[in-house]
Model the fold of this input.
Amino acid sequence: MEKENWINEILSSTDQIVKVLPSDGLYAKIQSQIQQQKTIETKWVWLAAASMLLLASLNIKMVSNELKSEKKNRENALVAFVTDSYNF
Done:
């Protein structure tokens, strides 16, 4: 019973809460501050995009070169193995 009273007391405490309304000019003030914020110039966006594209291209090129080098090393190892096998 005591637990139920405690729950009811907690729930009834929200009945005393009064809704607070913002001042009339608050929304307009927030909107004007948002509009005043500086935006990023288009040239900087394009520069960032070009930099990312260049970095991605360089990474792809490096991976491609590494794979070619690895393939070449395997071929050389195979040739060396075959050559050593026939040179008793």
